């Protein structure tokens, strides 16, 4: 059985949804790093960086980094269709935007969620948050422009990117901003959360 260290509405939602979708046996250890809880020390032992998702494979191997976990699960379950195969025309686009989400958008939260790690002084911290938040909105506008949304990000082919969008539109700058400035991403997220394939995971994460 896999053990997934998770937090509601965090990036672990993507991995949890894929474990459920592929039929892999797993248990969820709710371990939000920012809160004390029964699994927090357990998470610290397997991943000193205290990141969710952290996935412990049945053989004890520890995996971090959601994109790496997504690609691993896709390799184990090619029939699940969560990553376009190597010969699919959508493959290059999928890889580009998967890495864009985790390599460009994710780091803005590392900076803005705790500006005290980077600069001192209230004015400088507020300015850092303001600029990072504005930069993030610009990043999202590029994703919106690239999305096909007919009905999924890649078009007819569902992929793990759709699950990322489902949870990420709940983060800053929040759903009202996405509804106004990124209607295609909002529509994809809504389709994903309404998809019966993921209903138990959506409900457990409080996203219904």
Automatic annotation (TrEMBL):
Sequence ranges assigned to domain GST N-terminal in this UniProt record: 1-81
Superkingdom of the organism of origin: Bacteria
InterPro entries: Glutathione-S-Trfase_C-like (IPR010987), Glutathione-S-Trfase_C_sf (IPR036282), Glutathione_S-Trfase (IPR040079), Glutathione_S-Trfase_N (IPR004045), Thioredoxin-like_sf (IPR036249)
Domain GST C-terminal span(s) in chain numbering: 87-208
Protein name: Glutathione S-transferase family protein
Organism: Azospirillum oleiclasticum
């Amino acid at each position: 059985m896999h053990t997934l260290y998770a937090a509601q509405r965090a990036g672990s939602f993507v991995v949890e949804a894929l474990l459920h979708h592929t039929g892999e046996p797993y248990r969820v250890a709710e371990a939000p790093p920012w809160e004390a809880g029964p699994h927090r020390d357990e998470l610290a032992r397997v991943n000193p960086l205290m990141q969710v998702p952290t996935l412990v494979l049945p053989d004890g191997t520890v995996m971090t980094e959601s994109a790496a976990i997504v690609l691993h699960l896709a390799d184990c379950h090619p029939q699940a269709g969560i990553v376009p195969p190597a010969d699919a025309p959508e493959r290059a686009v999928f890889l580009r935007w998967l890495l864009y989400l985790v390599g460009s958008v994710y780091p803005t939260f590392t900076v803005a969620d705790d500006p005290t790690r980077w600069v001192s002084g209230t004015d400088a911290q507020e300015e850092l948050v303001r600029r990072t938040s504005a930069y993030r909105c610009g990043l999202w506008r590029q994703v919106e422009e690239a999305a096909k949304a007919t009905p999924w990000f890649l078009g007819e082919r569902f992929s793990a990117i759709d699950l990322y969008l489902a949870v990420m539109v709940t983060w800053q700058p929040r759903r009202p901003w996405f509804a106004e400035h990124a209607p295609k991403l909002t529509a994809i997220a809504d389709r994903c959360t309404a998809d019966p394939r993921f209903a138990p995971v959506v409900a457990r994460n409080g996203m219904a």
